[in-house]
Design a protein that fits this description.
Blueprint: H1 16-27, H2 36-50, H3 57-64, H4 76-93, E1 101-104, E2 123-126, H5 131-145, H6 148-164, H7 169-186, H8 192-205, H9 210-222, H10 226-244, H11 248-257, H12 260-273, H13 278-290, H14 294-307, H15 313-325, H16 330-341, H17 350-356, H18 362-374, H19 382-392, H20 395-407, H21 429-436
Antiparallel strand pairs: 1-2
């Protein structure tokens, strides 16, 4: 649920533990045996690159080659680096051909003197030839498709990576991010404690990773640990405010926990920086909808349709606008939502459909309500059953179902203060109480807990 990441490669960057492990593997290989000077320079350059330190030839000479008597005109540093570059090329082509991480010292792209500091900057990246990295790339692809089936495929690929390397930071973030998206559509967040534990370990592996902090913050929000969620988002903002403010998860967090105006300000700024940010456009449209400004919401949504043709949130919001306006076409919008998610009719949106169907579509209305009631024992459907209760005028059913949805940490309950389709319930004291406790954890006796975070 993130905006476009413009400063990271497809596979991302290896974590520091992965880099140090690869360095030790290389230095311990037969190819580096007896090459003490090259080994010393490689370690020096890797440490400098990881620390963001610019290195020049004079730095290598002064720090590593002080004896015999130091000579400021000596070419030993340049000569050793030239030999090291060749050794690294040989290692990466042979012994390290399928290693997870590549450490290389690129040759200058043009003849002549390289820019200051560039000649001695090592390139550290994931190896696309590595089987684990291929699985990771496949996971990223499936996660980007935005279909529910692809989410699960992506999770399977990330799991494959984690079976080989349980500390792979990108796979850990990717897996948890997919699970949270799935909870958001499915509505059953009863396993959220498992994701919270999983992300707690992930943050411990790489504390300065902004994406890890965002995903951890969302998991904590879903688990109604609001104070801890705020702390995680504050750290993420300190690390990379620009990218966090382009994240759909951050917008969700603001809508759930802050005044809607604050979310609107952040979204407006994001659109000002990047008019193609699909999440910012969609959330801006949603905010207008929450405010009852349907004309503005619809106009912005139409712009989002031109930006992203295959994003399920666009027709989903379109169906809500049709509901609010009493217009026809809501069912068609929901059909498109289900198509883009790759799910069957009434699998996850039967409650909304029971509100949407035009009064002339009696068969469709009865089908949607029957689907809701048949799934009444499925905790992922309790939110839908509440909407079915509203459609039928059965407020007792709506109340019972919303209480159950709160108990299983349904993420959609975090926004009940905003959803206009709950307006018929807002005068009831029981709904006011439920709204007041939407950010509070249910009693422990109702919480589905997991004792093993590695079960994920």
């Amino acid at each position: 649920m993130n905006g476009r990441r413009r400063d990271e490669s497809k596979l991302g960057a290896p974590s520091p533990p992965e880099v140090w492990e690869q360095l030790q593997k290389m230095l311990g290989s037969p190819l580096f045996k007896g090459k003490d000077q090259e080994s010393k320079v490689l370690r020096y350059l890797v440490e400098a690159t990881m620390g963001g330190i610019e290195v020049r030839e004079a730095n290598i000479r002064e720090d590593l080659f002080t004896s015999p008597p130091y000579n400021a005109r000596s070419t030993i540093a340049r000569y050793t680096v030239l030999k090291l570059r060749g050794t690294l090329e040989e290692y990466n082509a042979d012994l390290g051909n399928e290693d997870m991480v590549i450490i290389a010292l690129p040759r200058p792209e043009q003849k002549g003197r390289a820019p200051a500091g560039e000649a001695y900057k090592v390139r550290i990246s994931y190896n696309p030839r590595n089987a684990t990295n291929k699985s990771y790339a496949a996971g990223l692809h499936h996660a980007s498709v935005k279909r529910l089936g692809n989410f699960l495929e992506g999770a399977a690929h990330f799991s494959k990576v984690l079976r080989v390397d349980e500390n792979h930071i990108g796979a850990r973030i990717g897996y948890a991010d997919i699970m949270l998206k799935y909870f958001l559509v499915d509505g059953d967040g009863s396993q959220i404690e498992m994701v919270i534990d999983f992300m707690h370990r992930t943050v411990d592996i790489e504390k300065e990773n902004w994406r890890a902090r965002v995903v951890s913050g969302v998991a904590l929000l879903f688990g109604r640990r609001v104070g801890q969620a705020k702390a995680e988002f504050n750290i993420a903002l300190r690390l990379r405010r620009d990218l966090v403010c382009e994240s759909g998860w951050y917008y969700f967090f603001l809508l759930a926990t802050r005044d809607i105006s604050e979310a609107e300000d952040v979204v407006r700024s994001a659109i000002g920086r990047d008019t193609l940010n699909i999440w910012a456009g969609v959330i801006y449209s949603a905010i207008a909808y929450f405010r009852g400004e349907i004309a503005i919401a619809y106009e912005r949504l139409q712009e989002s349709r031109y930006t992203e043709f295959n994003f399920w949130m666009v027709p989903f919001l379109g169906s809500l606008f049709c509901l609010e306006n009493g217009d026809g076409g809501g069912n068609e919008e929901l059909d498109e939502t289900e198509r883009l998610l790759g799910i069957s009719k009434n699998e996850y949106f039967c409650g909304l459909r029971s509100l949407l169907v035009e009064t002339t579509d009696i068969a469709g209305q009865e089908e949607a309500r029957r689907a809701c009631r048949e799934k009444g024992d499925d905790r992922s459907q309790w939110f839908n059953l509440a909407l079915c209760g509203i459609a039928d005028g059965d407020m007792a059913l709506a109340r019972e179902s919303l209480e159950k949805a709160w108990y299983v940490f349904d993420p959609r309950m975090l926004l009940i203060h905003l959803w206009p389709f709950f307006n018929p319930l807002r005068s009831y004291d029981w709904f006011k109480t439920l709204n007041a406790k939407r950010l509070i954890r249910p009693p422990a006796s109702h919480t589905a807990r997991s004792t093993r975070s590695d079960e994920i």
